[in-house]
């Protein structure tokens, strides 16, 4: 009752120093108050109060009322609740910026990673990656070119900065960002043009209690935080059909990859058998050529074959046997 009877200054219960310097409506502390021209002003800190008392005329209205900062709204809710759709339509209607917090984080990594980061974007399990690797190796052995989709290699490891590593870890492990990273990101929206003077709807932030606490501790005050609540069944109806189609497509690719691996192994086995058969035929033909070049001649009680002596009982050879006089057409089997 006592507070209501007080005559508040131009900035009401908000700190005039923060409004002047940062263009943010930050609630003042009732314990840090000062009176100027019969009006009460509240301040966010003792330092802000000292600045005001040194030059109060810089922080109060003169001929015209003080200009209020633009609308800043945080929009939160579970996945599938419609945050992005509502935020986009509302931003268009109010002519302010629509910022998707996690999309901003993804953009900071996308230039290097070339794909989005997070559990929902990790399409291939370790088994699937091993199957793809096996398919690549088999394709090389079989000398066969398969579709790029089936043999798409993992992107090489990229060198991320310390800040990028922290952002990646936050997306992968669903953890809050540390204060120094949040400070750099949020300052751009609250303190830098053109967003500073235009306003925004921040979609999907804060995500954790620690990030909500950070907003208050560092003076990043939204005008409102809207939480969209939705029944679980509505979320299932919105998200499940797309997830089922994604799963079906994934299973189809998995079966195609298994069949391709089986066909590759069969082809490699057939090629190896054909290669071995060709080698055996080549060896046989080589031996036949060597035998066809042998010639025999008689000298005394033995036959000489290309300088190698092979002893025979010549009594078993019939006189007049064709080829015994050095015929080049005499086969080894006849000998």
From TrEMBL:
One of its GO terms (biological process) is nucleoside monophosphate metabolic process. The gene is AK9. Keywords: Coiled coil, Kinase, Nucleotide-binding, Transferase. This is Adenylate kinase 9. It holds the Pfam family AAA_18. Residues 121-152 form a coiled coil. It comes from Rhinopithecus roxellana. GO terms for molecular function: ATP binding; nucleobase-containing compound kinase activity; phosphotransferase activity, phosphate group as acceptor. PANTHER family: NUCLEOTIDE KINASE. The keyword Nucleotide-binding applies. Residues 316-335 are annotated as: Disordered.
């Amino acid at each position: 009752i006592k507070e209501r009877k007080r005559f508040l200054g131009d900035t009401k219960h908000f700190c005039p120093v923060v409004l002047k310097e940062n263009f943010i409506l930050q609630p003042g502390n009732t314990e840090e108050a000062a009176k100027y021209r019969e009006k009460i002003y509240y301040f966010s800190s003792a330092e802000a109060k000292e600045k005001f008392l040194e030059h109060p005329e810089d922080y109060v209205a003169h001929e015209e009322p003080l200009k209020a900062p633009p609308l800043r709204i945080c929009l939160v809710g579970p996945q599938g609740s419609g945050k992005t759709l509502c935020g986009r339509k509302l931003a268009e209607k109010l002519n302010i910026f629509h910022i998707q917090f996690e999309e901003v984080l993804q953009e900071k990594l996308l230039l290097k990673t070339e794909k989005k980061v997070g559990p929902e974007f990790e399409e291939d399990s370790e088994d699937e990656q091993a199957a793809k690797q096996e398919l690549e190796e088999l394709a090389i052995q079989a000398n066969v070119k398969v579709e790029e989709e089936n043999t798409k290699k993992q992107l090489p490891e990229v060198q991320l900065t310390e800040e990028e590593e922290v952002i990646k870890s936050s997306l992968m492990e669903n953890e809050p960002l540390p204060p120094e990273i949040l400070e750099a990101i949020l300052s751009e929206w609250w303190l830098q043009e053109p967003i500073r003077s235009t306003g925004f709807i921040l979609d999907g932030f804060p995500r954790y209690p620690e990030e909500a606490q950070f907003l208050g501790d560092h003076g990043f005050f939204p005008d409102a935080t809207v939480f969209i609540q939705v029944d679980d069944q509505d979320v299932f109806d919105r998200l499940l059909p797309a997830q089922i189609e994604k799963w079906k497509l994934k299973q189809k690719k998995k079966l195609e990859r298994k069949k391709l691996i089986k066909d590759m192994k069969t082809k490699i086995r057939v090629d190896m058998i054909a290669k071995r058969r060709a080698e055996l035929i080549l060896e046989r033909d080589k031996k036949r050529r060597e035998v066809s070049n042998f010639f025999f001649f008689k000298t005394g009680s033995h036959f000489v074959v290309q300088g190698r002596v092979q002893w025979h009982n010549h009594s078993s050879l019939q006189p007049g046997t064709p080829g015994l006089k050095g015929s080049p057409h005499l086969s080894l089997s006849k000998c």
